[in-house]
C-alpha cells in the first residue's frame, strides 16, 4: 500500500499528498470535475464534502430519516445540504451560535437548536428521536450526554470532530 503522503513508490519517488503538484491514484478513486464547476467551488466538496457525505451515505439517509448536525461550520454546512438533498425528512442544526440560524435554515435545516439558550433542548427529541447525529464541532462546549439522548435506541452518532480536551494526540 502507498499512502498519499511520505510513502515511497516502487520507482523510489515519494508521495507528497496535499503538497503535490501532481498525484498518482488508482482510476477507481478519481473522476473528472465537469468544466461547468469552477475549481474553487469543487475543492471544498472533495474534503469537507466527502467527510460528511460518507457517513450520511453509509447510514442510508433518505426519506423518513431524521438527522442532527452538531456544529454549523464548514462540515456542518455540507452536512445540512447533503442530508436534505438525500431526502431526509428532518435535518436539525444544533449550535451554540445564534448567528448560524438563518444560514442553517437557508441551507435546508428544518429545525435549529440553540444549545446555550434552550435549557431543555434535548427533551424535545423524546417523542421524535433522531436516527443519525453528525458531530462536526470541535468545541469542548458540545454537550455529549444531551446529544446522545436525542438518538433513537438504534440510532448512530458519528464524531467527525473532537474537542482538543478529549483528543489523545496533543
Automatic annotation (TrEMBL):
<dbReference type="Pfam" id="PF00107">
    <property type="entry name" value="ADH_zinc_N"/>
</dbReference>
<keyword id="KW-0560">Oxidoreductase</keyword>
<dbReference type="GO" id="GO:0016616">
    <property type="term" value="F:oxidoreductase activity, acting on the CH-OH group of donors, NAD or NADP as acceptor"/>
</dbReference>
<dbReference type="GO" id="GO:0046872">
    <property type="term" value="F:metal ion binding"/>
</dbReference>
<keyword id="KW-0862">Zinc</keyword>
<dbReference type="InterPro" id="IPR013149">
    <property type="entry name" value="ADH-like_C"/>
</dbReference>
<feature type="domain" description="Alcohol dehydrogenase-like C-terminal">
    <location>
        <begin position="74"/>
        <end position="165"/>
    </location>
</feature>
<keyword id="KW-0479">Metal-binding</keyword>
<dbReference type="InterPro" id="IPR036291">
    <property type="entry name" value="NAD(P)-bd_dom_sf"/>
</dbReference>
<protein>
    <recommendedName>
        <fullName>Alcohol dehydrogenase-like C-terminal domain-containing protein</fullName>
    </recommendedName>
</protein>
<dbReference type="InterPro" id="IPR047109">
    <property type="entry name" value="CAD-like"/>
</dbReference>
